[in-house]
Design brief:
The complex is a heterodimer of chains A (156) and B (252). With 156 residues, chain A is of the alpha/beta class. Chain A has a single domain, classed as Rossmann fold. Chain A has six helices and five strands, in the order H-E-H-E-H-E-H-H-E-H-E. The longest helix of chain A has 19 residues. With 252 residues, chain B is mainly alpha-helical. In chain B, 58% of the residues lie in helices and 6% in strands. Chain B has 13 helices and two strands, in the order H-H-H-H-H-H-H-E-H-H-H-H-H-H-E. A two-stranded parallel sheet of chain B has the order 1-2. In chain B, helix 3 packs across helix 5, helix 10 crosses helix 12 and helix 11 crosses helix 12. Chain B is elongated and about 95 Å long. The chains are: A alpha/beta (156), B mainly alpha (252). Chains A and B meet through helix 3 and helix 5 of A and helix 2 and helix 12 of B.
Chain lengths: 156, 252
């Protein structure tokens, strides 16, 4: 796992190379690292239309995929206007098996980079016996083959 | 001899050029001419294009594996190839920088209609299960139908779930429908129609598959399934063939 210096070095580059970073650090450290960048935020939850919520999982997946693609196609980063897209509620990408395909297909390139934030609980939570909680589920998903290109934290 | 200053011989581009093309973007019809225009055909690359074009012109099915080092231009190669095989804009062939290729193939390829399924495997997510590549291919065929031929989208069932749903709606006998009704009422406390409406076609089809009722009707084997898809798309869409292009295979 890499430290925040690696993120700062990456952000300073003139061009990027289909980079999707999994950020495991604090919001404050991320904000500090991004202070000089043209940043946009995307909360995956905001892609749902609150007035027209999907009826089932299948519908939710299809709508989320369409909205995400449209959002990313609309961003159009260029050499003069590079964009770092900070993605929140990434768990929904896992929940609906969307992966990171849309980001790689429509956004990440020389001038567009994605940072997926993943907050992990500092201490083990005491879940009821009926709840099975897999603390590594999201981390394992996003660090699988062909998924996030780098994992960075502010620790160390 | 007086040496020239380096800055008098070369000039620095005002902006860094785009060097990592995205396959999804460069094969859009709006970007096709630019993609082709920027492609430089070296002698060895020309030979590769000829090999693929010959197969297309003679309607001969064939698979090719593209392997080259990082940054060699694999995606640009694939994008140019796809554009020349699927789009019929006259300006496209005029943009080809290689005279021989243009003279030899512009006309014959104008008569070939290929249905494209071009995608990258990067960022696909977990590939668990032995049939995951089959599922990915099915999903990408669906995606291409939605984008390129929305008129065919609902007419062609592709996945096991869709085939089960199609079977229930169009082929099942009254006895089989009664069996399905009994299964859904016992398992889901709903009629098949109610369950389909509430949970969608995929979940409905999954339950039908679980019931075992459409057994033998789902074209479960890889070859059988893809023969069916090929037949449906080429027949209903009036295509000569399907063009599958898979980029970033190592990511899977």
């Amino acid at each position: 796992m890499n430290g925040v210096t690696e993120l700062k070095n990456l952000l300073r580059q003139k061009t990027w190379d289909k980079d999707v970073v999994l950020w495991l650090g604090s919001d404050a450290a991320l904000k500090d690292a991004l202070s000089l960048c043209n940043t946009q935020e995307l909360d995956i939850l905001d892609l749902f239309d609150p007035d027209n919520l999907p009826a089932n999982d299948e519908d939710a997946r299809a709508r989320l995929a369409t909205s995400l693609r449209q959002h990313l196609q609309g961003l159009q980063p260029t050499a003069r206007s590079k964009i770092v897209l900070v993605v929140r509620s990434g768990g929904l990408l896992v929940r609906y098996s969307l992966g990171l395909k849309s980001f790689y297909d429509w956004f990440c390139g020389n001038f567009g980079m994605v940072i997926i934030t993943l907050a992990r609980a500092a201490e083990k939570m005491a879940w009821p016996a009926a709840v099975v909680f897999d603390d590594d589920r999201l981390y394992d998903y996003f660090t699988g083959i062909g998924m996030c290109s780098r994992v960075i934290t502010d620790k160390g | 001899m007086k040496l020239q200053r380096l800055k008098e011989i070369i000039c620095v581009k005002p902006e860094p050029p785009e060097t990592t093309p995205l396959l999804s973007k460069i094969i859009l019809e709006a970007n096709a001419v630019r993609t082709v225009q920027e492609y430089l055909f070296t002698p060895s690359l020309r030979a590769h294009f000829q090999m693929v074009f010959e197969c297309a012109v003679h309607r001969r099915g064939q698979g090719f594996w593209v392997q080259a080092e990082y940054g060699a231009g694999k995606t640009h190669f694939l994008g140019t190839l796809v554009n020349l095989l699927i789009w019929r804009d006259e300006a496209l062939w005029k943009a080809v920088r290689d005279d021989d290729l243009r003279k030899t193939y512009a006309h014959p390829l104008s008569k070939v209609r290929m249905f494209p399924v071009a995608f990258s495997l990067r960022g696909m997510g977990a590939a668990d299960g032995a049939d995951s590549l089959m599922r990915i291919l099915e999903e990408q065929i669906r995606e291409s139908l939605r984008t390129i031929r929305p008129d065919l989208d609902e007419k062609i069932p592709i996945t096991s779930e869709e085939l089960a749903d199609h079977w229930y709606r169009t082929e099942s006998t009254d006895w089989e429908k009664a069996g399905a009704r009994s299964f859904f009422e016992k398992e889901n406390k709903a009629s098949p129609e109610e369950y389909r409406k509430a949970n969608g076609v995929k979940a409905f089809g999954r339950e039908l598959v679980r019931s075992g009722l459409p057994q033998g009707k789902l074209k479960g084997k890889f070859k059988e399934r893809f023969s069916w898809i090929y037949e449906q798309i080429t027949k209903l869409g009036e295509y000569d063939g399907l063009l599958f292009v898979v980029d970033e295979f190592r990511s899977w």
